[in-house]
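Provenance and format

Records in this collection were gathered into a single text stream. Each protein contributes a sequence line and a token line. The two records reproduced below are adjacent in the stream.
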Amino acid sequence: MGELRRRHTPLSVARWASRRAIRALSTWPGIRQVHYALHRWEFLAGRNDSGYSGVFSSVEEAARSAPTVVTGYDQAGMADLDVYRHANGEFKPMPPTEYPALFWLRPAIQEGARRLFDLGGYVGHVYYQYCGYLDLPDEFSWTIYDVPHVTEAGERIAQERGAKHLRFTNNVAAIGEADIVFAAGSLQYLEEGFLHQALREANKRPPHLIIHRTALHPTRSFVTLQSINQRSGRIAFCPYTVAHRERFIEGLQALGYEQIDAWTKQRPIEVPLRPECYVDTYSGLYFRLRT
């Protein structure tokens, strides 16, 4: 579920420029069809890494539209920590866009939080990147919830790296044991309302919610299909949920949470031929449980 980085090359920049030119002419007769045909070819061929196609009413409908039977992250080849590392094995520097989440995570731990639930935390890349900036107590537990293929790979990597704080689970009910819920770049790979439902059914609501790198739209919610190039060269297709921002926030407020902060990350979502679905930035939010 972790967010894979875009790779920009002269060829990709040229493709981007050509697509912009076609969009500018999209009102001309026949150009709209050319735009869609060009996009669809690139999307199916994996030429447009992290591209999007189509708008659907549900995750199931989006999955059925995929050109392959296997979709999503619960498959071999999708659990790859190397996308976050240099060729020498060292982690790439933490990008500046991570600092707002770190800003709120650090004091929560200093105030006594000892159990973090990393919702869709992939194989632990946030833990590995953040550890150099956090003074985690020995008893601190960082539990990652993800799909089985990913958690199995995460457990192997954690053992190899001696990551003593890391735990992995496929049981979302463990959210009720946490002091902090952390969701970074993961909610878009789940049904809209997944987090709200998990919190509603939890035996205890965690005091801190840190939502980071999350796709939210100002006026609508929808599901699209995302293409991702795996390092193996295969192409994966994932249903991708974009939630209605106001409904998302109000749903958490109804569960007793107060919004403390908000921030953005510059990264657009553009579904060809659906301008009403355009999103210019990803969202970050910090909530505390009202006492």
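Adjacent record:
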Amino acid sequence: MTHGRSFFHIVASLIILHLSGATKKGTEKQTTSEGQKPVQCGTWTKYAEGGIFTSPNYPNKYPPDRECVYIIEAAPRQCIELHFDEKYSIEPSWECKFDHIEVRDGPFGFSPIIGRFCGQQNPPMIKSSGRFLWIKFFADGELESIGFSARYNFTPDPDFKDLGVLKPLPVCEFEMGGPEGIVESVQIVKEGKASETEAVDCKWYIRAPPRSKIYLRFLDYEMQNSNECKRNFVAVYDGSSSVEDLKAKFCSTVANDVMLRTGLGVIRMWADEGSRNSRFQMLFTSFQE
């Protein structure tokens, strides 16, 4: 995520995590280094106009025992197109149970699956239904190959074709702290962050006292376009505003209380131009276990 800049600019975030994997059924599990934690596959990178990512060591053979997760995020009203290079080879297996690429339509490992791919034929072009794609590359302990190279770019979301191009978003961030307090959407206009007609993507950073955690209780909540998460939502993050720290996201008629495991909570409200009557009010309380 970017802070202090307009989300009108296309932002792509690749989160690349490296974990040890498992070998085929009937063989012992292997690790990259016995007794040591696995290292990361790469770093968090951002490209304004799309970018490229590859399996480890591409175009040489990828190493054994790898599990790399890539998360791509587009700006509001954008979708993602993912293209795999023809120079592609991943160990084939029945239903791609061993080495494989798995692609999901969303930011999580439980988002709807688009497909699982392996073998010598590169996957077809893949397009997300919204702002995120989740891609996992898995390699077991045997039969490595050259892997893959993938390119991603962004296209307008067809769900918003009648609304046109989103205007630049105002910078909208708040810093809050202490043992308790109120976070509410009316702060946006009261503190001059945006007018009542502008689309907003606002964040409230709540910092608890040392060694404390945070409990969040909704006092008021209503989304103008209920169940349309692309148009309006309230999200809660635990520890940072990165997508992997998303704790809960509300865009329907009900919002539940949330208990955080860290002392940093981030509340995010997204509302497009036609959803500015969406509102919320939340009480935060710090506590120690």
